[in-house]
Write a structure and sequence with these properties.
binds adenosine-5'-triphosphate; six-stranded mixed sheet
């Protein structure tokens, strides 16, 4: 579904990505692991078309998107849920859900979303400001399910959340996968990553240095320890 080859990216003169190679197959959940500053967020932002200076190849469903603007990348069916979540404080839950434009057929309708996220249904009329961190993260994920995006990119969805909420996010991601969505996520929480993903890429200094299938994660701990300091 997604094939990234030799992706490079710059912020001004600063060369941040030095050749990222990633494949994500339809229906998979894939993580990007790596230390702070390794280039994980920049990889997601580059795929989304949000980093102006980039080179290499990003093919989505067979079409080259490296030169597309972010709105056209969104129309192609890719969505990014950024680390800061982007919930509008002055809008209530339903208004936040209805805000992003539908870019493709096949998104979930509001009743289905509320069935998947009963907590959000209970808070349907609460303004964004009144939501907990976990509810905001759920809303940020729920919102992109409506748009028809097929590849959901989530940047550190568990950051700052209590363990019980992290488990809920894990259940949500597994349910999304069961419904045929494809997920590429940045994670620092190794244990969480293990409960949701099919495969893991390790990013270091702007390059992919390793790929580990989830069932080999435990036996690859020594190797990963070196990269991640876990
Ligand atoms: P983190 O978990 O800390 O977000 P990361 O692996 O996602 O880490 P990136 O955020 O992609 O890393 O950052 C990669 C490098 O690019 C870092 O050296 C960072 O300082 C730099 N960088 C990130 N955003 C910008 C920006 N807007 N302008 C200049 N440099 C940036």
């Amino acid at each position: 579904m997604l094939a990234v080859r030799g992706l490079q990216a710059w912020y001004g003169e600063s060369h941040v990505l030095h050749g990222i190679d990633i494949d994500v197959n339809q229906g998979e959940v894939v993580t990007l692991l790596g230390r702070n500053g390794a280039g994980k967020t920049t990889t997601l932002r580059s795929i989304m078309g949000l980093v102006p200076k980039r080179a290499g190849s990003i093919r989505f469903e067979g079409k080259e998107t490296i030169n597309l603007r972010s709105d056209l990348v969104a129309r192609a069916g890719i969505a990014l849920c950024p680390e800061e979540r982007g919930i509008f404080a002055s809008l209530d839950v339903t208004e936040n859900l209805m805000l992003p434009p539908v870019v493709r057929p096949g998104g979930l309708d509001l009743p289905t979303i509320y069935q998947l996220f009963p907590n959000l249904k209970e808070r349907a009329n609460s303004p964004g400001t009144k939501l907990s961190g976990g509810e905001q993260q759920m809303l940020a994920i729920a919102r992109i399910l409506r748009t028809g995006a097929r590849l959901l990119m989530l940047d550190e969805p568990t950051e700052g959340l209590a363990p019980v909420i992290v488990q809920q996010i894990g259940r949500t991601i597994r349910e999304i996968k069961a419904r045929g969505f494809t997920v590429l996520l940045v994670e620092q929480n190794f244990r969480f990553a293990q409960t949701v993903a099919d495969r893991h890429y390790v990013v270091e200094h702007g390059k992919v240095v390793d790929m580990v299938p989830n069932d080999q994660l435990a036996s690859s701990m020594d190797r990963l320890h070196e990269y991640l300091g876990v």
